[in-house]
Amino acid sequence: MPADADNPSGFAEAPHYHGHRERLRERFRDAGPDALSDYELLEIVLFRALPRRDVKPLAKSLIGRFGSFAEVVHAPDARLREISGLGEAAIIEIKLIAASASRVAKGQLKQRTMLSSWTAVIDYCRTSMAFADKEQFRILFLDKRNQLIADEVQQVGTVDHTPVYPREVVKRALELSATAIILVHNHPSGDPTPSQADIQMTKSIVDISAPLGISVHDHIIVGKNGHASLKGLRLI
């Protein structure tokens, strides 16, 4: 068979993106993740799931659609499936990043007392919930040393509302022999400013908990644009 005019050697050439992949990996290894843009970091995530494709256009499309690396990895599966060219294997690779970040953050919490590592508490709450597309109400149950007993999502609601029942919150704390709790929920709008309903619900839980010897350390609201602490705002 005659040699290709563009490849006179007759040997198959590696796809053009192979060199690009190696350069990205080298930059990641030598300079660290901060040397890569969001779409470049996402490319590396997609390499294993899509080994025979140039994933740069796909990575850029994902960042353009969702806004940032963090928003891509926390995007709901259903919305990721809307992206042309993104199959189940690639979605699993993306969701593994979100799961890994949450697991690491939770592991850091378990090694310390809550009140001495408030930054770790906030980081975990934001990693777990800030980018969810529905409201979630989570409770961190603590023992008398303020160490984590359990971390549970109590309710999942709509895009702007989660039904919370104060007596159920306290009942669960008693079941776990918790002496303190931290309330957490997210605002999918991105704005963590507490609503009047948030404030009233928190006060109801405080009122029921106090006579039973259960302290409400705080109610933290997280969103894409930051977080709010009701205790820090002197609302409880």
Oligomer: single chain
Please compute the radius of gyration using only Cα atoms.
23 Å
Largest sheet: 5 strands, mixed
Which ranges are low-confidence, i.e. pLDDT below 50, for 5 or more consecutive residues?
1-14
Q: Please, could you describe this protein's structure?
A:
- The chain is of the alpha+beta class and 236 residues long.
- A five-stranded mixed β-sheet has the order 2-1-3-4-5, with helices on both faces.
- Mean pLDDT is 87; it is low at 1-14.
- The longest helix is centred in the middle third of the chain and has 23 residues, at 88-110.
- Helix 6 packs antiparallel against helix 7.
- It is built from nine helices and five strands; from the N terminus they run H-H-H-H-H-H-H-E-E-H-E-H-E-E.
How is this fold's topology laid out?
Blueprint (H helix, E strand, L loop, with lengths): L15 H16 L6 H10 L8 H11 L2 H5 L3 H4 L7 H23 L7 H12 L6 E7 L5 E9 L9 H10 L4 E7 L9 H14 L5 E9 L2 E4 L7
Parallel strand pairs: 3-4
Antiparallel strand pairs: 1-2, 1-3, 4-5
Offer a quick outline of the entry.
The protein has 236 residues and is α+β, with helices and mostly antiparallel strands.
Task: Supply database-style keywords.
single chain, alpha+beta, five-stranded mixed beta sheet
